[in-house]
Amino acid sequence: MKEPNEAIDIDERVTTIVADVFNEDAESITRSTEFVGDLNAKSMDIIALLAALEGEFGFPISAADVRRNETVGEASDWISQELDARDA
């Protein structure tokens, strides 16, 4: 199980990446921010996001994986689970 500070670190890293990809202020991005509803994510945005997340976390992420997670928090939780599974 991840320590609370590790989960926060993943949240912060994902938030920073999302803010960079969507040219938003990181402070305006929350766990409940929706990629499509709030950030108006398009296909090219999803591709840029998955490339940035792959680079940051070091494992392959498909566009379907990104689309399956509707919010920043869901994406962060999914990445945390994937990292845990890879460490097991």
From TrEMBL:
Tell me which domain of life the UniProt entry assigns to the organism this sequence originates from. Answer: Archaea
| Stored Pfam families | PP-binding
**A Gene Ontology biological process term:** fatty acid biosynthetic process
Q: Does the keyword Nucleotidyltransferase apply?
A: no
Q: Carrier domain: from which residue to which, for each copy?
A: 8-83
Give the record's keywords alphabetically.
Fatty acid biosynthesis, Fatty acid metabolism, Lipid biosynthesis, Lipid metabolism, Phosphopantetheine, Phosphoprotein
Coiled-coil region(s):
none
The record's annotation in HAMAP family points to: Acyl_carrier
Q: Please identify the protein, giving its name as recorded.
A: Acyl carrier protein
Q: Which organism is it from?
A: Halolamina litorea
